[in-house]
Amino acid sequence: MAADLSQIVKAYDVRGVVPDQWDEPLAELFGAAFVHVTGADAIVIGHDMRPSSPGLSRAFARGAAAQGVDVTEIGLCSTDQLYYASGALNLPGAMFTASHNPAQYNGIKLCRAGAAPVGQDTGLSQIRELAERWSESGAPEPVAEPGTITSRDTLSDYAAHLRSLVDLTSLRPLKVVVDAGNGMGGHTVPTVFAGLPLTLVPMYFELDGTFPNHEANPLDPANLVDLQQRVREESADLGIAFDGDADRCFVVDEHGDPVSPSAVTALVAARELARNGGKGVIIHNLITSWSVPEVVREHGGTPARTRVGHSFIKAEMAKSGAIFGGEHSAHYYFKDFWNADTGMLAALHVLAALGGQDGPLSGLVAEYDRYIGSGEINSTVADQADRLAAIKAAYGSREDVALDELDGLTVTSTDWWFNVRPSNTEPLLRLNAEARDEATMTKIRDEALAIIRA
């Protein structure tokens, strides 16, 4: 392996092609580096269903144990199940997954005890530096007394904890189609949903890290087509899709129409505020719908706007004591889940909300879906800064708009807003626009795209 690990150590995690970019010997170095940086004397490790995951996970465990650390392996799990174990056991954790990336990829999501995130500024850069140094000079010396490696099953405890956070007592019988995309939802859903009055129609529950049916990335509309069709065929009440490591959930209504993650954020926010006596801070990133802060205020809460990305959300959750946070990408964060993200808990909230009344999901979410959004539109550009400057110049002198640069550039008017942000890893600008009606949204979207693509 090359000593320069900048291509695989990203802002929030480790991710790359196996074995071309990283392999088991490097995973062993990452394990040793992780315990040096965290100072832990015990850690917990889990992995997804990718063919390379068990070997990489065990190599990481060996590297950690050789430094005297006791390792608890929880085996096959979703990412939020690993966060549960980190929180419940109060141990730093490592999850081996590449989320929704293709089969040849793998990665590591790392956290400190209590599921606190590890990113570039909170330990990941030091882990990278140690692994780079050791890959050139040789692994660190094992300690005289190596740690132990033991196994523990946390699935039933994880499921019970999630169900304890949602009132499911008034849930009426529902028919739900779940597309696990051959990912970890196929492992966790049967246990989490067990005993609930649900008729479960499973799709692609077989754990298969080669993803034979479709990519496990429900953010891409192409990967929702099978679920939408099955919901209509089954006359189901709703459909739920999980990504590869099952930490994100996407919802479709009884017609098979997607429910926007902003509407799910608003719905769950209202429910979490009700649980907390109508008080609390709710985090939302700056490209969620206007609906979210509106609903939060209507239910007595305080909305707090933040940059896009889980490290910013989790930091703001901890700083403000927020009870819930949501993103446009279908990541949902809960104070009662150690500020970590869990799509499964969001899914239980949607089931409880739908099953606690008699109407269809489309009618229920209409209250939370008040505006017309463009979705995220990516444009390849030669010079991101130049195009952002051009947009700022075009709108900066207008009296009817306000500009802010919290994350990229957001342009806001009375009846519409749009945000343009640069990708950190590709020569792309990402546009999100929203308006009170379709014609206004189309007009402002096309105006912005014309400048971006000029």
UniProtKB/TrEMBL annotation:
Stretches of the chain forming a coiled coil according to its record: none
Domain Alpha-D-phosphohexomutase C-terminal: 376-448
Pfam families: PGM_PMM_I (PF02878), PGM_PMM_II (PF02879), PGM_PMM_III (PF02880), PGM_PMM_IV (PF00408)
Keywords: Isomerase, Magnesium, Metal-binding, Phosphoprotein
GO BP terms, alphabetized: carbohydrate metabolic process
Family of this protein: Belongs to the phosphohexose mutase family.
Protein name per UniProt: Phosphomannomutase/phosphoglucomutase
Species in which this protein is naturally found: Streptomyces guryensis
Lineage, highest ranks first: Bacteria, Bacillati, Actinomycetota, Actinomycetes, Kitasatosporales
